Amino acid sequence: MTIRITGTGSALPEKRVTNFDLEKLVETSDEWIQKRTGIAERRISDGDTVSTLAAMACKNALEMAGKAANEVDLIIVATCSPELLLPCCACQVQDALGASDAVAFDLNAACSGFLFALNTANAYLQTGIYKNALIVGSEVLSKLVDWNDRGTCILFGDGAGAAFMEASAEDIIRSNGRKAGMECMLQGSEGAKGMVLSCAERAVNNAFMSGTQTEESPYIHMDGQEVYKFATKQVPACIQQALDKAGMTVEDVDWFMLHQANVRIIESVAKRLRVDIARFPMNIHKIGNMSSATIPVLLDEWNRGGRLREGDRLVLSGFGAGLTYGASVLVW
Ligand code: COA
């Protein structure tokens, strides 16, 4: 059996916001932001929503896979910034695509969301419950960011990326002898450290309550240094564990596609794994941190740009609020 990605797609808002634009909002500088994060600009929604971006990314992925919407079995949208609490974004996407036969639901694992969706879909496909799945990471973080907080507003952007996964009964062997498809996955969560990166929803409020509950600030709060420490320690350890589980070493991997949170985090992971940074594709400089959308957008960029070859082995690794983290090993 082979479970592999046969189509990728992405959708980004048109509006570009540069570091120079941010200099006009908060006390910061292009030099500081580039040096500490590697980000030069990000895309910010001018009306696009999580569901419209997700639907567009899905259309592009389906088109590449050569599939019609009514052939889709499962839609999982990973998001932490949906425009509605009900219905879920995946059902909005189902409607927008006309994927009337699909089962659709959302999943929130913040910046690890796409990876968790990939692993969830993989489990469904492995068991034969569904034959294919559209998985999407879509975010409009610009509405959750306090544009007066220079510690966070410089980091985030909006966008969506999608992948279409299919199961086939036969093994597909690439010319380099590797069997295509999903090989190994690993996920972890550290709920005890959750408040280092948080964003509040509505406080408890009902007709029978005695007293009122204070509303928390509705914006993203982050202890940047704690998140940095977590990511630089946990991500290389998780990748190493996933490779150990698969009986492989870093030398067996062609590309390490990490969640694009910060260039310094990615450089630190490469150093700890003793892998050349050239094997860590990056696009953060032009789109910033789009949480669950970064990995599929990067994958789509590399796929459409012809930089992925059949038989290449990839490690995808996400990390973020929760705290959550994970890695998947697959052959293209
Ligand atoms: N522009 C200019 N100065 C800034 C600034 C900005 N945008 N943001 C913070 N500063 C200042 C701070 O106020 C502080 O000033 P002080 O020394 O006078 O108190 C100084 O820069 C250093 O702040 P610090 O928070 O220690 O910076 P840092 O080196 O940790 O970098 C981050 C901040 C956010 C870039 C870094 O912690 C980081 O990348 N963390 C991971 C965040 C992340 O990836 N989150 C998403 C995970 S999915």
Name a few traits of the molecule.
single chain; 332 residues; alpha/beta; five-stranded mixed beta sheet; four-stranded mixed beta sheet; 9 helices; 31% helix; binds coenzyme A
Description:
The protein is of the alpha/beta class. The protein has helices at about 20-25, 30-35, 50-65, 90-95, 115-125, 225-245, 265-275, 285, 295-305, and strands at about 1-10, 15-20, 40-45, 75-80, 105, 130-140, 160-170, 180-190, 195-200, 220, 255-260, 315-320, 325-330. The strands form four sheets. Strands 1-7-6-4-5 form a five-stranded mixed beta sheet, sandwiched between helices. Helix 3 (about 50-65) packs across helix 4 (about 90-95) and helix 6 packs parallel to helix 7 (about 265-275). The longest helix is centred in the last third of the chain and has 23 residues, at about 225-245. The protein is globular and about 60 Å long. It starts with a strand and ends with a strand. The mean pLDDT is about 95. Bound molecules: coenzyme A. Coenzyme A (COA) binds near residues 154, 225 and 262. Coenzyme A (COA) binds next to helix 2 and helix 6.
